[in-house]
Each structure stands twice: as structure tokens, then as C-alpha cells.
Amino acid sequence: MRIAVVGAGVGGLAAAVELAHLGHHVTVLERRDVPGGKCARVVRGPFRWDAGPSLLTLPHVFRALFAATGAPLEEELELLRVEPVTRYTFADGSSVELSADLPRALEALETWSRGAGADWARYLATCAAIWPASEAFLSGHPPWRSGARPDPAAAARIRPSRTLRDFARVHARDPRLRMIIERFASYAGGDPRRMPAALAVAGYVEHAFGAWHPRGGMNELVLALTRRLAAVGGELRLGTHVERIAVRDGRVRAVHTSAGSVPADAVITDVDRAVVRGSLLALPAARSTARSVSGLALLLGLRGATPGVTHHAIRFPADPDAELDDLFVHRRPVRDPTIYVCAPGVTDPGDAPPGDEAWFVLVNAPAIGAAGDWEDAESALLDRLSVRDRLVECLRRSPADLERETGDPGGAIYGDAPHGRLRGLVRPATRIRGARGLWLVGGSVRPGGGLPLVTLGARAVARAIGPA
To answer: Are residues 64 and 126 both part of a single domain?
Structure first.
């Protein structure tokens, strides 16, 4: 079968690798001159940054993909464990470091806040009970294959009527620990006050399966996938802009690009579902829903070393609800945001000159594209970080940049917001009615955003298409 894949993000590449290995003739079409999509690499002088995902979880997902398509992951990529997973700092000046080593984490939490260790253990235990049902949804969707159906008892524990905020309040007495649990809403781009409690498992996987970093940066995963694609006989065409998908008699027939038409018996798209409908198929817009968050990122090259810096660090604001209101109610740049700082050189030196640091700094932002004053937001963020005197390089990537580079409306990272009953687990479908042979992968469709989930979604699509 001739299969065209639109977009060389991790989801598109994973699907292409699997299908080429199954004997299909696979062509990947990418409009940019490098593969990777949001999992991009930026280099400026002696500094190097990952400009998208900065953490790899569920490594067994990637090991399974590589093992199934010819050779172990370890032949392509070295994964380094990140410890501690994250340092959290609060507006009152207190801080705590959480480890994937449970005894170490519990000791740190009890020292920080009496009873917090017991609460964290209870949180992890609840998520461990939820995980089997969650994993069934993440690995596919109904009808499930034999043996993959979620256990009814585990599914009942998801409590679809409970929000992530409800979940945090039940499991944590210290308001600061609740903030840590609620922060996992950002992994799906949603509001913890409105998204289902089941998404608490996002934090569980970091601590149950570990936090990982590919040596050389997250973009090394993309490079490993492109090498595997070549090894299994797939083709990657860079600098090829897809203009539309041709559908005749209810079935896809070809992909029309800036370089001509590519005949196809099946098409897989790794772009936002809204873009597929509106731009590639010219269909009427789907029912309007709230969009997930975008992000304002600063790529900083800093002179000198920061005492006590960790690979991942989160700084919480004094009023988290005001941040959520700015994002989801007022839809404006956040005045006092939660600040995420990633300094991967702690684990994997080489992204900056010796003695210096490369930071990836991210704050959540509404998906409003060019409508925000991102220059002013950048200046305010630099003031909060107190690093102006150390700046060697500073690159800004705003929602407007994300929208321009990826086509995602407003720069939304995860498509529709995961609000409502089970919305976080049952994401928009991977098919579009009236276009047989068309399949969707990526963060805007099932099972959701994040590198392991888009890979699971890609493998589910490949299984549905089957061998040549």
C-alpha cells in the first residue's frame, strides 16, 4: 500500500517507521527543512537547546517501537535518568525536591511538611490503581483487542465526575502539595478545576517509571527515528509543503504538495486536527471548543554556573488561581506565572561552553497567537529570573511563533482543552467521517499529547492499518 505521512513530528515518524517495517511504501512529507515538529533543536553559537518537550517518560513505549522494527533502542539512543525529578519552589520561599526513588521522596516531603510524605504515598497508590484502566485508553480505543480491555474495577476508580482539583484536595492536606498535583494539568494543556481527575496519572508515571533524558538532547529521539525510517525503507521529503489531501468518492486518493502530487492509498496526518479539517480537507469547522494552552519559551545562554541548579525546576506564583483565570477566562499573557526552568547540562553536559549554562524557560500562555504582547511578557519573565546580568543569548518562542511554525491555531500545543467528563482520556478521534483511508496522529487526537502518548497513538494507527 502507498502511504503518505503529512508531518515529520514524533507521531508521524513513529507511524511511518512501523508501517514501512510492515512492508508498505511510506513517504513522509515535511514542510520544514528539518524533521521533529515541536521536538525541535535550536543552536546559537556555542549554546544548544531543545525547544519543545524536555522530559521523556514511559521509556518502554520507545523500547517497544524500536524492538518491533529491527533493533533495540539502546543501539540508537542512550537514556539518562534524571534525579531529582523536579525541584519545586513556592512563593513563601520554601522548596522541596521530589525523586523517583520513593523512600528518598517521602523523606524529603516529611522534612518539608509533616504528613506530606504519607499524602504523596497515598496519591501514588491511588494512581497505581487507576493506571491499568488509563493504560488501556492510552494504548488504543474501543473496540479493544482481546486482553486489552480495561479492568472494570480499575476503570471505576477513575471517577469521571471528579476534577483534578477535587483529586488534589482529597489526597493532600498541605496546599503546596496540592499545587504540585494540580500542576500535572499542564501536561495536557488544561485547567485543573475543569479537567478529569484521571489525568493525575501524568505525575504518577514520572515517579513510577522514572524521568529520562536522551544523551545529546530530546531531538536525538527524532534523529533516531529518522535513521530507523531509512533503515526500514521509508522516504523522508523535507521542505515539502502539503497544500491539500485529495478525496474522491469518500476515500483519500493523493496528497497535493508544493512539489507535485503524491498518490496514496492511505494518508496519516501529524498536524492539528483542526488544520486537517479546515486547511487540508476544506471541511466546515467542527463544533467550537476551548483550546488547550500554548507556551511562551525563552532559550537562554547564561554566563557562569548557578549554585544548586537542578535539571527541572518549578517556581509557583502566590496565586495559582489568578494564573488559571488569565489563561482560561481572560485569555491574556499571565501576569504572575508558574515558571518552569530546564537546565539539562546538569545531567548531560555539552549544551553550553564549560562553566556556562543553557536554560529552557517556559510559562503557560493562552493560545491567542499574535494577539498577545509577548515582548512585554518576555521582559517581565527575565526580571523574575534575575539573570539579565548573565545573558549571552536570549531567544523567544511565543504562541505566535508556534502557530506560524506548526500551523496549530493560536499556537495551542495539545489541540482542544481536556475539559469535561473523561475528556482527558478520550481525546478527539483519529478518523474523519467522509475520508476513508485517512488517519490522524499527534497531540490533538487520541490518546493525547506528550512523546509517549503520540507514539502509542501512532502504533495504534499502524496496527489498525496492518501489514502490506
So the answer is: no
